[in-house]
Amino acid sequence: MGVHHGSVLRILRDAGPLSRAELARRSRLSPTTLTHVTAQLLRDGVIMETETHPAGQGAIGRPAQALRIVREARVVAGVNIGAGHVELTMADLQAATKGWRSFGFDAKGTEPRALVREVARQLTELSDEIQLDRSRLLGIGLSVPGPVDAGRRIVQAAINVGWSHVPIADLLEEEAGQPVVVEHNVSAMALAESRYGIGRDVPALLFVYLRTGLGAGLVIDGTLFRPGGHGAVELGHIQMTPKGALCACGNRGCLDTFVCEAALKRAAGIKGAAPEQLMARVEGNGPAWEAIVGHLTTGLASAVNLLTPDLIVFGGHLGEAPESLFQRLRRDLPPRIMPHVRDLLDIRPSSFGPAAGVIGGATVALEHFFYGGGLH
Ligand SMILES: [Zn+2]
Fold it and tell me: Residue 2 Cα, ligand 1 centroid: separation in angstroms?
């Protein structure tokens, strides 16, 4: 399989079913190459012949022959490692999930090797549970809370779990016996939303995720923004005031020190684990709510002026925030951003809810092992 296979598959994923003529037009492949590529994909069972009605004719008129992806022909595993919790799922070629597992771990005291061993064990159990035909499994996509190297193998730094330069893909490959690709968690979420969620027709999408800390990921024209090859948009470390509290990054007064899970829990008077709908609990504390919304608005205004996203997608605690937060931001943000961006910008919760992380992992695996032409 090669680059042409990946390109044909991507076109069918985004616009299929398509006639061979339309596929030829969009792929710009020669008739010979296209015939060769589609024959091989048909043989592998990842695309199939189907009938479609030409656009504009509804169900009237003679159906035409077309090609479409067989979404259940292959499967990837999506894994999301957070600060003290892991979620796992299996996903088809359109990132629809089947099965779900999660488990907790000690974020400060768990060796990466021990953690991936448990991930591998849970993946085996999940495969059995959904009676997965292992020959259809392409690989594992791992979403992690920190920037990763350009080769998508190594976590460079994940402060929340105390990791520095951990070769997490190699470790999991050894334990699970499957190919693994790794990506920064919020970047993976942004990519998932852009491929399979509410960002499909959006030129620039900024995903903002709030759990332990505040992170972001950016997709521009379908491409994940990975500055320096490692890709993490450090929205949480925009400095709000040089004399603020010390941040985990070593600087002072970062946005992350004002808008993070610990700050939300303090404002809501909650000790222990963060409950669901945490933002709604904070809203009851008027002054603290105003301060948090104010800092968030300031940080987002800077991000919008620098990155000009058409859509900001909220995940984690922000994704389940009360509608009043979205209303506030839609009102307060426009006057603070450049006039030409005001009318374009929309802010919405993630279409994947709490599954954004695992679907992000699955999306990265699909990109790498299937739509990139890496099918094997
Ligand atoms: Zn910081």
Answer: 42
